[in-house]
Amino acid sequence: MFDRFSDLVGSGFPFCSPLLTTNEQNQNHNHPPTHKPAKKMSIFFCTPPSSSLSPPPTTPHRHHKPPTSTSLPHKPSLISSLTGAALSFNLIFFSPLSPPPSIAADSTSSAVQFECREEDQRLEDEQRLRNAPELVTNEDIVTEAWQIVNDSFIGTDRSRWSPQSWLQKKEDVLGTSLPTRSKAHDVIRRMLSSLGDPYTRFLSPAQFSKMARYDMSGIGVNLREIPDENGEVKLKVLGLILDGPAHTAGVRQGDELLSVNGVNVKGKSAFEALSILQGPSETSVNIMVKHGNCGPVQSIDVQRQLVAKTPVFYRLEQTDNGNTKVGYVRLKEFNALARKDLVTAMKRLQGMGASVFVLDLRDNLGGLVQEGIEIAKLFLNEGETVIYTAGREPQNVKSIVAETSPLITAPVIVLVNRNTASASEIVASALHDNCRAILVGERTYGKGLIQSVFELHDGSGVVVTVGKYVSPNHLDINGNGIDPDYKKLPAWNEVAERLSKCQKQQG
Q: How far apart are CA 356 and CA 89, in angstroms?
């Protein structure tokens, strides 16, 4: 019975069923249910530093420029993202490829063919550099890393970074001998370490390659968003898992994704396309791709092989002498299945009679931040603010808002503790500041930074802090955390009264 519910605020978790109803548990206790694709996502990372957590690897707000000292082709482009299990990432990737040349609406056929050949040549040149990184000088690589930080970095300790001191750093490091690539990488590591930001760091070629192979699609592809000649977004395959489902079916690096199951994806974000691509493992998805910049269009059926596990556990409890049914949902991390499975759990609990909900985010270190944003939207009214993102310049503050009516309007308690971080803090602050939930437990971790991943021309990379998250009530989450409303669970009538009062004050 729910009189044991106060145990939830303690150190232990109650037993929670996976996403199965009682009948489903009896029939298939060890297998998760099938799920429909989730909605939109464009990807980022972050993770808190502690002895028990790996430093994380973000929403880039600007593309970095090529170093002035190098003549390498440089093509910043947004790609889809990744995450690590139980880690909290806000990573967005940039590659050193440059956007394809624009084609004027009145271009002749020969001009278009020339543009295609030019693009194909650029891709060949880029591949040549990837296959022979020794063609890139050590000085070029160091300068490239320096330039990325110069253009994008937002310091957590501003006293250790300024344009003047960073320019001096460039002169110092380029004044040293760089006889080997290993030496150049060591110089970049020391250069980034001098910033005093634990999240800004160097990735070796092996580390970057491993990160870029992370599959969120379920078919073994990573997508990047690039503008076309009209400024609209088109999606290209940035990376393929060798011998993965898409690669085996005939998808190739550089292919443009045109449609998924008949849905045109032009103008859609990588998150939206990935959400359509996702589906139950061993099912098929049809994709239409254009090979290369000017190649043929092909329809391909690909079998999904999604390996992500459900992070959602739920059960129905009763309190107030059985008069109130409480839907308890624990969310362990924000992976590619988080939103879909949370929607499934909430709908099932509503169908079972739940009139109030508990969302347990304790020890949830985050994960895919965009999943957190999309989950927060499930509880908010159209137009309400989920989170603000702030860049280096104070005026560069952008808001992310809910676009539709909420899935859940019932009172919500969100359980938090000192290990509630990043995407979890976005959800907690969004629901709290919009008077949709009260927070119970401990102050949260305080991880509110955005990192972007940039690929360098020798296949290595740098992770750079480029922004931070600010709550709807304009609280800087990073380093501060979010204070709970209660340390112990209040009565549900008190929860309803507090939320009602909050809504009247805001209205």
A: 30
Does 340 lie in the same domain as 255?
Answer: no
Give the model confidence (pLDDT) of 341-397 as tens digits.
999 999 999 999 999 999 999 999 988 888 899 999 999 999 999 999 988 776 678
Catalytic (active site) residue 422? yes
- Transcribe 373-395 into DSSP letters: HHHHHTTS-TT-EEEEEE-SSTT
φ, ψ of residue 340 to 5 degrees: the values are -60, -45
Residue where a domain terminates, one of 258, 285, 303 = 303
Options 40, 170, 234, 447, the catalytic residue: 447
The share of the chain scoring above pLDDT 70, in percent, equals: 70
Active site residue 193: no
Domain span holding position 415: 2-36+308-449+467-506
pTM above 0.85, yes or no: no
Give the span between the Cα atoms of 115 and 157, in whole angstroms. Answer: 46
Task: For 382-411, write each residue's pLDDT tens digit.
Answer: 999 999 998 877 667 889 999 999 999 999
Measure the CA–CA gap between 437 and 413, rounded to whole angstroms.
5
| Dihedral pair phi/psi, residue 378, rounded to 5° | -65, -20
